[in-house]
Amino acid sequence: MHVEILVEDLSGKKALDVLVPKIISGQDTFRVHSYKGLGRIPQHMKDATDPSKRILLTNLPKLLKGYGRTFQGYHPSYKAAVVLICDLDERNLQDFLEELRVILNACHPKPEARFCIAIEEGEAWFLGDLPAVKSAYPQADDQVLISYVNDSICGTWEKLADAVYPGGAKALSLKGWQAVGAEKARWADDISPRMDIESNKSPSFCSFRDGIRSL
User: What's the pTM value of the predicted model, to 2 decimals?
Assistant: First the structure.
């Protein structure tokens, strides 16, 4: 099996490049493609007018159609799938999944696909493994960490920042979004290698892990 994985930012790619080999078998292959933000599903599922901007949802109709055509050309014995991973943010989960399924069902041919949604944000997957966070950041604030409810809608990256970043989310936010993005990438580099994928407490991470394995 070969899996093409689409993620909305560089920190997601950094994490998945480490985590996916822990999930798949040695005979399976994968490739992670990072985009420059999530964006929105285009109206009437029109293809993006400027794919070079690399906004994930904006490009999704065109991407899924392309994977459908590409996978159809493979030998029947060669199995492939595409996996979309993105944050839920403030969306309604079931409504969002239905929108994604509508895009997929409009593809002819339709690629094998999975939609994996991090609730609320990708940092929820790190916070699902508090021993990994503490291993990466021994000085992390224990009270902040234990106050976190897995996959809760609470400002997840801010919660992790409050635990591990000097001055917390407020200090990090004052440096601007580029600094926030760089710090998220550093968290991915530091925490992902220490994560135990079998004991993660994030339901959305477990759904992703099991979704990959189901392929």
Answer: 0.92
